Each structure stands twice: as structure tokens, then as C-alpha cells.
Amino acid sequence: MPEQDTAAYPRTIDETLAPNSLKVLQKRYLKKSDEGQAIEKPSDMFIRVAENIASAEAAFGASEERVAEIARDFYDLMTSLEFLPNSPTLMNAGRELQQLSACFVLPVADSMESIFGAVRDTALIHKSGGGTGFSFSRLRPSGDQVRSTQGVSSGPISFMRVFNQATEAVKQGGTRRGANMGVLRIDHPDIIDFIKCKLDGDFANFNISVALTEEFMDAVRADQAYALRNPRDGEPAGQLDAREVYDLIVEMAWATGDPGIIFIDRMNRDNPTPALGEIESTNPCGEQPLLPYEACNLGSVNLSRMVRYTESGPDLDWDRLADVVHRGVRFLDDVIEVNQYPLEKIAELVHGNRKIGLGVMGWADMLIMLGIAYDSDAAVALGEKVMGFIQAESRRASMKLAEERGVFPNWEGSIYDTPDGTGLRNATVTTIAPTGTLSIIANCSSGIEPLFAVSYVRTVMDNDRLIEVNPLFEDLAVKQGFYSRDLMALIAEHGSVAGIDAVPADVQRVFVTAHEVAPEWHVRMQAAFQKSTDNAVSKTVNFGNDATVDDVRHVYDLAHDLGVKGVTIYRDGSKENQVLSTGKTGRTAGVDPARHGEIEPRPRPSVTVGRTEKILTGCGNLYVTINSDEQGLCEVFTQMGKSGGCAASQSEALSRMISVSLRAGVDPQAILKHLRGIRCPSPAWAQGGKVLSCADAVGIAMEHHLEWVETGTASTTVSKNTDGLVDLAGACPECGGALEHESGCAVCRACGFSKCA
User: Domain check: are 74 and 222 in the same one?
Assistant: First the structure.
């Protein structure tokens, strides 16, 4: 479209954005100079996006004046924070990359050409900023015959490692590595190994899900065996006890959060274009079932902006919601037109089906504003009503676009191709996607998740502690007269308002947090939104650390009974050393206060004996020296193979603390356990295995040193066995802040990092 007069756009958004919203935009979304400084204001970004997306209207006959009018409307739509498109659209629209989709699904057929072609395509997609989903169900099992070479297959899991390492090698946009979803059907002969594949510390770049069939679920309920099938020829390949396999899935999810489950038959029941093939996988967060070579095209309505206040109290503004839905559908259909896809096959299928996914964020905020508790029948009923309304209005908007522009090209043979079928521009119109980073920009709650916390403690430079309070709670506390700084600090320490006498009981009930919501309410809410969602609903069922395996099993059973298409769970603290965002959970347990401060490390002797080992890390070569005295290990020294820098200073600090702990009598194996498996954004391959971080490297060196002390010889390889060791998945890899596990993803509200941005 022609250059517009940017003075015609109101710039109030630059002054009204919340401080954290502005921080995230500056770090991740705004154009930057070669020196890394933001050269856009938020208003500039929204103008750039609005004009770029509106330029699609010209292809459908709109005049220059009409294109400019629609651009202004799109700008108003976004800057009102009533609707935001997905992150790639905000980042890339109107820029050289022009890749506006977050996620893709690629096919992996049973041939070396297909497998490594998919690896190549994955690298191109990750380079463009997208994530990828795959089904490995078509690959023949390990040990199966390969006639062309007279050899045997290494199986799908071995090839998953290739994809995982390719992802490790491609940096996206300088901020994060690509996310992947790996799916395997429950009837694949390698299913047991797949269910347990993340126990060995591999596949850090994968979420994994098991594709459960109705046949399998029937066998679970009947406590019967079910058949495995070789994908090479479809022939039977043995059988397994269905309940034992189901129990294993539940146990692994309880222990690690993986695998998730998807009900693959349900996804294909709702496949709008079955003539084009079966749905076999989803995007990395589980909410978008896609055919091979399809892409996500997502945006979200901010429900917290859909509440109006009248003399009789707060209520939903249904007319406003309908208006935003219609404008959002038009916006997303235009995105398809101007998107530059990384592969021609993707462009063809996306234009053929024109799938869009309009979803929501700010649901928990809306409930709070209406005075409705998240874990209540009233909330579930309202969720069903709201999403039913959005679905109906989205289809009306798509029908209107079809009248203007025609139905989607693959209409013939679709489920809508019936004598009384209604013309639609888009094969699907609704999806509930993760909105972690978008919800920070919009200053609202994420997706359909409950609040993660009412108050946060954030540590900034010079160890200053800032208390950040949910604005809805703060406003209510002021209005009702129970606000005080001391109370806000207490809530931040406590993690929630539950049980705090100074907070009225009715307020406690409404401001319930994710870990206070019973798991079954998470599933019931997901099911309520799923009833009126074309694609699927991204949602995490949060469990407390004390949840049992049976608790997880109950949620999986309930998810199947209530008709959801998949479910992801996260048990708090299931990944050791999780960094939490509330003061209470950060306390040290098991310390006798009477003895606190009495333990002193023994003096360092004049002479020690030890060895030095060089280990390659993502920061460079790390030289680890470990010394012993007459009582055992007593000190650790580290030196980076390059001078200065944070990596060197942090390694020195780590080694000093280890030395003090050793001389204070701490068991070296206990220290070792808390070092091995800690991850950083830059792991390295060395000595036959993966070194996950500098801390992991020190742990490896300690393993080797203890072996040397005991036997006189030491291994020079990096062990791959990290069963039961620390996985610092709860810490943001960029700022070290707390990661919220929500909507099948992980988000840091301190800096805006998102695994699924």
C-alpha cells in the first residue's frame, strides 16, 4: 500500500502501555539498530503491522482509500489491546522476513529422503522463527528389516535425536531455539521407548505426545490387550496390555510433565478436509491439529476488555465482542494473503484451506471483573457460552468474507461441501492458543488459564526486591479499604490470598490461583471451551507437588470423558530446582533453625592432591581442578579458556560454593546430583555426550574425579544417563526468573521469554 501519513494515527499507546508491556516490546518486537537499540516505538510497530496486513485488501479490489481506512481500523483494533495477532505477525509484518506464522507441521515418511528432507525443512522453518510438529508414526520400528540395504532400522526415536540436534544448531532470531512437537501413535511397536524417551535427558527441544486411539481407550476401560502394528505394512506386530501402557504414560507425566496425550481420532473426526489426508500431529503446544505442510495463523481477543459497567453492575458487552471478532477474522484472513512462507508446499496448502484460529486471552481477568470464581459451575457455564458466541460470530464473519472473496479453494470434498452447506472463507476459524507473551503486552491473564499468582516478588539490579501486584486486586483492595504495602508483601510471600485474614473471604474466593484450582476444574474449563472450538484448546492442568499418580490418571480419564482433544499436565516441582516466583516456595526446607549458622567448613590444608580436566561447554573450554585432602574432596577450581566475562565469574562463584560445601562435610554425591543435568541455552557436544551447561560440566568432572579416587583410573566420556538428575526447566534461560507453566508452554513474565512465542 502507499506510504501513509503516520500523523493520522493516534499515539496514545506509547504512554498508556504498562511498564512490563513496554519492556517486552522493546526487547522482542520493536525494530532494532545494528547496535541492538530499539528504533521503533510501540505505535510505530502497530502502524507497520496494520499497514502491511491491510495491503492484502488491494488483492480483492479495495481502493487505496479503502486500504488506508482498513489499516487505520486494524491499528485501532490492536492498540485498543482488544485483539492481538500472534507474535511472528507483530515481529515480522512489514519487515524483510515477512514470516507471520508461529508453527508448522511437517510430514516424516518412512524413507531416508523424507526424513532428512524434513530435517532440512525444519531448519528453514526454525531459521524463520517458527516451531514444528511431526508425527513419527510412519517410521518402521527399531530392528525392523530394511530390504534396500539388507540392514535394520534404527527406529523413530533415533531419528528424533537428529531433529533435536538440528534444532540445537539453529538459533531463531537471536533469542530462542525452535520448539518441536513429537507425536507417536499408541499402536506403534516402539511406543514404550517413546513414552520414556525424555528420561535420559535428551530431547530438550521437544514436547512429546502420545496419539491415543478410541480403540486403545476402549481396551483400557475393558482392561484388555491391544494390537501393535508395523507402519511399514500395517500388519500386527504383537500386543501390549492397554492398562499397563496407560499407567506408564500417567507415571511419566507425573514424574516429568511428558508425554502429553492427544485423542487422534477426535482430531480427525473434526478434520474439515479429510480428502487431503489425515491429521497426525499438532504444533508444539498441542492446540492446533494440522495436516502436513499446514501452518498456524492465530490471534486472540482480550476478554478483559469486553466487560462493561452499568448501574446494575458489571456485564459482558456482547456487541463489542461481536465487533472485535468480525474485525479479527478479517485481519487473520488478510494475514494469509501477505505471509511469506518458508516452503512453497506450505504456501500452497495454507492458501488452499485458509485456516485461521481466533482465540482468547484475559479469561481469568474477565471472571474476576464479573465476581465469578474460576473453579465454579458458573465460570464453566459462562466459558461455554462465551466461546459458543465467538464461534458463531467467527463463522458469520467467515461467511461474509466468502461472499466477498469466495470460499476456501479446497472447499470441494470438505465437510462443508453438502447441498445445504454454508460457504466459508476459512476451513477453521477458532483455536485457543497460548498467549504468554501477548498477554504481557495486553496486560491481562494468559489464554483461559487462571491467575498464576496474585503478587510477584521480582529481584532487579543490586538485589532490590520489587513487589508487583495484580492490578485488579490492587484496585479492589484500595476501593474496599484493605490495601497496605505490608499486606501486599505478605501476599507476595504467601503466594496467594488464600487464608489471609486481612483479605475478605469473597475476594479470596474470586482471586484463586492456578495451583489452588483443583485439577478437575482445569479440565472442565478446557472442555467448556473445546465444545465450540474448531481446532483445539491449549491448557495446562496444574498440580501441586504432593499430587499422586492417581490424581494424574483421574485427569486423563476425565479429559477423555469430557471430550477434549488432548491434555497436558504439570506437577509443581516435578523438575527439581524449579525457580518459583513467590517467597513462600523459595524457603529452604529441612533446616533445623536451632543449628542454623553453626556449621563451619574445615580449614584448607597446606597440601592437597588432585587432577585437572578440560571439558568443552557452550561457553568455551572449562578447566576444572578438583583436589582432595585426608578427609576427602575439599575444593574445586574452575577457569574458562578465555578471559573474563560472566561465564568465568559465575563458574568461579560456583566453584567457591562447592569448595565451602565440601569442607563443611556435604556429601559430594549430593552436590553432584544438583549439578548434573542443569541446562543453559548453549549446551555443547563433547566426549561422546552432551554438556548441558558449565554447572553440568563441573558435575561431570566431579564424577570422573570420584571414579579416579576410587579406582585409580577415570572415564573420559560424558555420561548420557541423567535419570533423576536436575533439570532447571523452571528457570528462564535469559534472565533466570520464574517460568510459569501454562497453556502447554513456559513463559517468563519478568522478561517476556516464551518457549512458544
Answer: no
Let me know if 283 is a catalytic residue. yes
Torsion from C-alpha of 163, 428, 71, 363, nearest 10 degrees: -90
Concerning whether 285 is annotated as a catalytic residue, the answer is: yes
CATH classification of the domain holding 149: 3.20.70.20
Task: Pick the catalytic residue from 57, 287, 516, 613.
Answer: 287
Please state the three-class secondary structure of 312-373 as a single string.
CEEEECHHHHHHHHHHHHHHHHHHHHHCCCCCHHHHHHHHHHCCCEEEEECHHHHHHHHCCC
Structural domain includes residue 436:
no
List Cα–Cα distances, 336 to 52, 106, 327, 353, in angstroms: 12, 18, 15, 10
- Residue for grid cell 531448519: 123
DSSP reduced 3-state for 709: helix
Would you put residue 211 in left (φ > 0), alpha (ψ -120 to 50) or beta?
A: beta
613 catalytic, yes or no? no
Look at residue 218 and tell me if it is in a domain: yes
Locate all alpha helices (DSSP H) within 201-285, ordered by sequence: 214-222, 242-256, 264-269
Report the phi/psi class of residue 255: left, alpha or beta, with left for phi > 0 and alpha for psi in -120 to 50.
Answer: alpha
Q: Give me the domain span that covers residue 629.
A: 610-736
- Contact yes or no for 592/742 (Cβ under 8 A): no
Q: Which residues pair with 171 in a beta bridge?
A: 177
Choosing from 103, 197, 285, 748, the catalytic residue is: 285
3-class state of residue 188 by DSSP: coil
Residue 112 sits in the same domain as residue 54: no
Name the active-site residue from 86, 271, 283, 302.
283
Burial class (CB in 10 A: 0-12, 13-18, 19+), 201: buried
Q: Rounded to the nearest 5°, which phi and psi values hold at 106? A: -115, 145
* pTM greater than 0.85 (yes/no): no
Question: What total number of domains does the chain contain?
Answer: 3
State the 10-residue block means of pLDDT for the chain, 757 residues long.
Answer: 66 93 92 93 98 98 97 98 97 96 95 96 91 96 81 91 89 60 98 91 88 98 98 95 98 91 97 97 89 96 96 96 98 98 97 98 98 98 98 98 97 93 94 92 95 75 65 95 92 88 96 94 98 95 91 97 95 54 38 49 83 83 87 87 60 85 86 79 63 85 84 69 38 64 70 68
C-alpha to C-alpha distance for 59 and 327, rounded to whole angstroms:
18
23 and 135 share one domain: no
